[in-house]
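Blinded run. Sample ID left blank on purpose so nobody reads anything into the name before looking at the predicted structure. Input follows.
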Amino acid sequence: MKNFSSFFLSSALLAAVLLMLNPAAAQAKIWRIDNNAGSPGDFTTAQAAHDAAAVAVNDTLYFNGSGTTYGALHMTKRLYVFGPGFFLTQNSQTQAAPNHAYLDQLRVDPGAAGSLITGMTMYRVYLFASNILFKRNYVASSNHAVVIGDNNQLVGSYTPSNVLCVQNYISTTNGYRALWVAGGCSNIIVTNNFIHSNNPGWQAVYALSSLIFSNNTVYGILETNSTDVTNTYLYGGSLAGGSNSYHNNIGNGTQFPAGNGNVQNQPIADVCVNTGSDDGLYQLKPGSPAIGAGLGGVDIGMFGGADPYVLSGLPAIPAIWSFSAPSSGSGASGLNVNIKAKSHN
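Blinded prediction complete.
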């Protein structure tokens, strides 16, 4: 009982929903990946779970939190991948078990089109497949962090379409790019992310393809091309690229041109609470100039818009954030278990 996991219940709930919505999902399996000592997981490494999953029936991989890595994951088949989230000790009501699920590298090739990856922690990500939802993940790297497409720039020629990069926390160091979008990609949607380079003179975003870029919080050079940048807070760094337009953004300096709803010279201490967890500090403070200043009257930044950033990247499934049980019970009195759960849409 002490090894009880929040994902144990969540996987059963998700399976029931899938069966009701899609009879074909009855063929799909749910695999539990857990490398903690004594845990009854189906697999202990990410790649072994992937390789055992069926092709094109939407198997689901649930990763339990762990203090050690699950290795690299090279996806060549469509899967739903769920982790427990991140910064789990920094924010309240997250997971009863506070460890994250860590991948050394994630590579999603075209055969994995239609996949979902959420709640994971990773060092490096390559998204080469179309129709991908990359949501609520934490990527922190001393190399290029998230690469979408690769038009013969790194390892090959990939120009995916319909890639949604939403509600992620992406950070890089050493002059590398936090988010790199190759040329030739289409319908790449980047919304409600935190995107950070540790130096304002380095590229946080480098996009050679046109993007839908809205409600992000960015530190570093924001280089886009043929993109309408909207509802974004650039709290350090500058703009680059060509044929862009800028509407209803805020900068800590004069990065965004005056007019079109843009606001200049707003330091982070005036815009955000600037205290708390690593992601919570970017929530808007009372009286912030970003409140209601976006297109359509929404808030500017990662916590604004129709699909705001979710603290700790908790996946959109129920999570047990408190679990307690005695070390023993009896046939007469049973075992009194106390559980507190919360949904995260």
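Unblinding after everyone has recorded impressions. Residues 1-26, 318-325, 337-342 have pLDDT under 50 and may be disordered.
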